[in-house]
Amino acid sequence: MIAETVCSAVAVAGLGIAAVTAYRKRFLAATRIAAYALVPLGLVMTGVVAWLADTAFSPTAWAGFGVLGLAWVLFASTRAVERRRGGTRKERKEARAAEGREAVAPAASAPSLGEGSTPSKRPAKAPRAEPADDFSDIEAILKKHGI
Fold first, then answer.
1. Nearest Cα to 18, choosing from 42, 39, 37?
2. Which of 14, 72, 122, 136 qualifies as a FRET site for 110, CA 20 to 30 Å off?
3. Does residue 56 contact residue 65 with C-beta atoms inside 8 Å?
4. pLDDT tens-digit profile of 114-131?
5. Angle CA(57)–CA(59)–CA(61) in degrees, nearest 5?
6. What is the chain's mean pLDDT, rounded?
7. DSSP for 39-79?
8. Is residue 3 scored above 60 in pLDDT?
9. Quick one: angle between helices 2-23 and 27-46, nearest 10?
10. CA distance 115 to 58
11. How far apart are CA 91 and CA 95, in angstroms?
12. DSSP assignments along 76-113, one per residue
């Protein structure tokens, strides 16, 4: 009962401040103030404030929050262990199975992953310039400035 009265008083005070702000021809600010002032009144009218008040003083509700917290801690710890081990059970099983496979067919004389039949679309990289070429430009700039 007290929470509803306080929220209603806050809403009325906020609407009064919005009216004064609108009187000073600051309509955008007045609209924003009115919107903020109507939030507590809306919360009272929807019953959220009563629900929060009932929840705040209910030992069962606090026990429920404790159970939710415990569930979150368990979930987070299992995720941390899973990351440390390297994935889920299915991923570990697949990794163990992949260790037994060979990259090359047993009867092949060359690796099965050779050059493809289509030429590469990217041109070959140009050879990198000598570092001395890069430093010659820098030396020329330094000499120009007398350093």
1. 37
2. 122
3. no
4. 555 555 566 666 656 555
5. 85
6. 80
7. HHHHHHHHTHHHHHHHHHT-HHHHHHHHHHHHHHHHHHHHH
8. yes
9. 170
10. 72
11. 6
12. HHHHHHHHHHTS-HHHHHHHHHHHHS-SS-TT-SS-S-
Question: In this structure, what token pair is assigned to residue 15?
Answer: 């609407």
**Unique residue bearing structure tokens 């919360």:** 43
CA 6 to chain centre: 37
Calpha distance 86→80 (Å, rounded)? 10
DSSP state of 24: T
Amino acid symbol at 31 = T
Q: Which two tokens stand for residue 111?
A: 């690796």
Query: Which amino acid, residue 40?
Result: P
Only one residue has tokens 């163990």, namely 96
Give the tokens for residue 64: 């429920």
pLDDT given at position 20: 95
Are 41 and 18 a contacting pair, CB within 8 Å? no
- The tokens of 144 are what? 């120009």
**CA-based end-to-end distance of the chain:** 82
